[in-house]
Design goal:
By secondary structure, this protein is α+β, with helices and mostly antiparallel strands. It folds into four domains: 3-25 and 35-61; 100-190, PDZ domain (Pdz3 Domain); 194-402, 2-enoyl-CoA Hydratase, Chain A, domain 1 (Alpha-Beta Complex); 409-442 and 450-520, no CATH class. It has 17 helices and 21 strands. The protein has helices at residues 3-20, 32-56, 63-76, 87-97, 125-129, 150-157, 217-230, 248-256, 303-313, 366-370, 409-430, 461-473, 481-486, 488-504, 506-514, 518-525, 527-551; strands at residues 83-85, 100-103, 106-111, 114-120, 136-140, 143-144, 164-171, 178-185, 187-190, 194-199, 204-209, 235-239, 264-270, 278-281, 292-296, 318-321, 329-335, 341-350, 383-386, 392-395, 403-404. The strands form six sheets. It has a six-stranded mixed beta sheet, with helices on both faces. Strands 1, 13, 14, 17 and 18 form a five-stranded antiparallel beta sheet that branches. The radius of gyration is 27 Å and the shape is globular.
């Protein structure tokens, strides 16, 4: 086969699956000859461009990379959310939807130019192998990680189930660092949607639904709520901050937990003849009716906005936080012949009141769109609707919270200044290298399912004094000890978070961060109003039932 023919076949193999994947039979009746001619011309133009590049480009031509970026570029001319995945990315994407992945089972972080173990998950290869908080990853399979970022390290740690990986870490000892080489076997690691849940006092339950809506989300939610009720929960804070979305079906089922049968959750409409209109309503005769507050922020998108929008439109919950991302587009997934796949926008979804919450993306770069650069501070009020109780809500720019609480600029500044110094100090503290603070010795046998007690690992002024001395001695951290007194409360809380992470894992340690979380504290203060809303719904439902009995 001549080279020209070989690349021609490559182009056809790539284009044809994209043309026909998910196409509706009715579309191929009229204009079939025109469509065939158009496809032929696209294939010829693309093949010619490839051949010119192959024969004339100054360097090597990576055809896989060219084809991948060509498809991505094509899809991004449609909208920001249609995307293409090569075979490996497609496998990872599908595993994400199943709430699992294959790897060693640990979170990792980048601090300056080094990558560290933050927290191994309970029962995973990383946990069983003995990896610890603060371990600096210096080699993977004999290859130095110097200069690698967190994504590069992650890609080497992930891999097929039952395959070996050798990880070499540098661990702080009581006096000198120690290099440790561990031979691990990758395994299936659960990645539940709910990162953690617990009671925060006074009958208040908290559920952190952070990791997207996957195949197990509804089941996880039911189990978490059942456990919290056994612990005495009488009201709930549902945290959807940072939840980038996922499966519409799971968002519908989670909303159903709190809504009465027949109440609309979401409707979807797309191209006539291709995407028939779909409406999802609650089917629950006895929903959970305790007071409910939902937390959202600029990272809450898609399926999480479906839940927040449904609960807001039916006046079932108080929404607290920041305006959500604003994604009102629905994607379907299509696997292509070579094992790759794509997500393609096939419709738009609407909240129960009829709001389309999609933000404007025409004329914006992907960078500006995803970072929400140039957006108005307030919700883009493209349409006005009413909730069941007659409150005004708007479409066009995400879910506007009932109570807006923005992250203070000072909080962001403290993160920038203190994250690195606090991590390095906490790493030394957990290793027993800070004299006079033996109470912070970590129990390595502790189970990561531990429930954090209020008095555990409290950070006192004595610890703060040790921290200031540490940054005086480690001038490379470029931190001002004098400023530490000004930011003392934040620093103390962050040190405690790091140490609890070292002892029990990040899921348990997250409780510490909530103690200083302004949005969380506001959510607690909004619970009395949420209680009034829940009581109004009960009275309305009771009156409706009474009217039906009277008519009978």
């Amino acid at each position: 086969m001549k080279p020209r023919n070989r690349y021609w076949l490559l182009v056809v193999a790539l284009i044809l699956p994209l043309t026909f994947a998910g196409a509706h039979p009715g579309q191929r009746v009229l204009g079939q000859d025109d469509e065939s001619a158009s496809r032929q011309k696209i294939a010829e133009d693309y093949a010619q461009a490839l051949l010119v590049a192959k024969e004339n480009y100054a360097g090597q031509v990576d055809f896989d990379r060219i084809n991948k970026n060509s498809i991505l570029g094509m899809l991004k001319t449609l909208d920001p959310h249609s995307s293409y995945f090569d075979r490996k990315e497609w496998e990872d994407f599908m595993n994400d939807q199943r709430s699992r992945y294959s790897g060693i089972g640990a979170t990792i972080v980048q601090r300056n130019d080094k990558v560290y173990i933050m927290s191994p998950f309970n029962g995973t290869p990383a946990y069983r192998g003995g990896l610890r908080y603060g371990d600096h990853i210096i080699q993977i399979n004999g290859e130095s990680t110097e200069g690698w970022n967190v994504s590069q390290v992650s890609s080497k740690l992930l891999g097929p189930e039952a395959t070996p990986v050798t990880v070499k870490v540098r661990r702080l000892g009581a006096s000198e660092p120690v290099d440790i080489e561990l031979k691990l076997v990758r395994g299936i690691v659960p990645q539940p949607s709910i990162a953690n849940y617990f009671m925060v006092g006074n009958g208040i339950g908290y559920v952190n639904l952070q990791r997207g809506f996957n195949t197990t989300t509804h089941e996880e939610m039911r189990n978490a709520l059942a456990d919290l009720r056994e612990q005495g929960m009488t009201s709930l804070i549902l945290d959807l901050r940072g939840n980038r979305g996922g499966l519409v079906d799971q968002a519908w089922k989670v909303s159903n937990i709190f809504l009465y049968k027949g109440q609309k959750v979401v409707s979807m409409r797309g191209r006539p003849g291709v995407f028939p209109p779909v409406e999802r309503a609650a089917f629950n005769n006895t929903p959970d009716d305790y007071p409910l507050v939902v937390l959202i922020d600029r990272g809450s998108a898609s399926a999480s906005e479906i839940v927040a929008g449904a609960l807001q439109d039916h006046d079932r919950a108080r929404i607290v936080g920041e305006n959500s991302f604003g994604k009102g587009l629905v994607q379907n997934v299509f696997q292509l012949r070579d094992g790759s796949g794509l997500t393609l926008t096939t419709g738009k979804y609407y909240t129960p009141s009829g709001r389309l919450i999609q933000r404007e993306y025409a004329g914006k770069s992907l960078y500006d769109y995803y970072l929400q650069r140039g957006d108005k501070e307030a919700v883009q009020k493209t349409e006005e609707k009413q909730t069941d109780a007659g409150r005004t809500v708007y479409g066009g720019g995400g879910i506007d919270p009932d109570v807006e609480v923005k992250i203070p600029a000072k909080e962001l500044e403290m993160r920038r200044v203190w994250t690195e110094p606090v991590f390095q100090f906490s790493r030394a503290l957990a290793a027993g290298r800070v004299s006079g603070l033996t109470e912070f010795k970590i129990d390595r046998s502790a189970d990561h399912s531990h429930r954090l007690a209020a008095g555990e690992y409290q950070v006192t002024d004595k610890v703060l004094a040790a921290f200031k001395e540490y940054i005086r001695q480690n001038k490379d951290l470029k931190a001002d000890p004098a400023r530490a007194d000004k930011d003392a409360a934040w620093i103390k809380r962050q040190i405690r978070y790091e140490i609890v992470t070292a002892a029990y894992g990040q899921e348990i340690a997250y409780q510490v961060l909530l103690e200083g979380d302004l949005q969380m504290q506001t959510a607690i203060t909004e619970l009395p109003k949420a209680k009034n809303m829940a009581e109004d719904i009960r009275r309305t439902r009771a009156a409706a039932r009474g009217g039906e009995m009277h008519r009978n």
